[in-house]
Amino acid sequence: MRSGMLAVDGAELYYEVRGSGPELLLIPGAGGDGGFYQGLAEDLSDAFTVITYDRRGNSRSTGRTEEMMTLTQQASDAKALINELADGKSLVFGNSGGAIIALTLAAQYPEVIRGLIAHEPPAVKVLPETDEWFNFFEKVIARSEEAGAQVAAGEFVQTMRGESDAPWPEDVQQRFFGNVEFLFSKEFADFGRFVPDFDALKAAKFPILLGAGSTDRGAYYARPSLEIAKRVGAPWAEFPGIHMEFLHRPAGFGAALRALATEMQSRIADVPERWTTEG
């Protein structure tokens, strides 16, 4: 593994690169910490050049300001990483808020994406306005202002099935709780307003796949993936486990992601020689 800092407009992004082969960028969700993907990145590094990073203003990256964070800025940061570390084009995987960023990246900068896998984007604004979760992000922001970010963060995690029962690595947990004030005060609003650019996604020249975990059937953060897939004409797949299954059981989740990413790569480019020779 090699790590570094990439200077972008107004920030430096901490990144890690593992393995070799086709590039695969993993975009983290709420909390913005690339450490969520450490086990998954190691598992996939025998077949892919796996790029992880801390999003702007989070954990080991800089760029925390008083300005509200926009998805356009988040997408621009992801594009800069692809240009610098993947020679301008990459497979992209995003989970949760990272999937929202990935979908924004796909709509605004399609030229840098080789294929996109969006896992459980919590795009609640694609649900009916009468749905009980339609204003969920606004309620979390209000709760953070009322009771504090740490309380809101604990309650937020409780809304995701199984996550509160599964331990996080200590360093990741510490960094996450150091990010929650920034998350709820600066990032959450744009996540909560997100509606995909359906026309841009339908017109994409690269493969797109939406997915959600088997444990999350019917959950507010899983149902939008089905609606988005239907509206852009993309396939949908069920992954194993809970919302951040890759954090707790990276090998099992990685097996599913490996199959999907390999299939995407084989459709759009020659299979790398290292995949065809005896190891």
Automatic annotation (TrEMBL):
Transmembrane segments: none annotated. One of its GO terms (molecular function) is triacylglycerol lipase activity. Pfam families: Abhydrolase_1. Keywords: Hydrolase. One of its GO terms (biological process) is glycerolipid catabolic process. InterPro entries: AB_hydrolase (IPR050471), AB_hydrolase_1 (IPR000073), AB_hydrolase_fold (IPR029058). Residues 24-168 form the AB hydrolase-1 domain. This is Alpha/beta hydrolase.
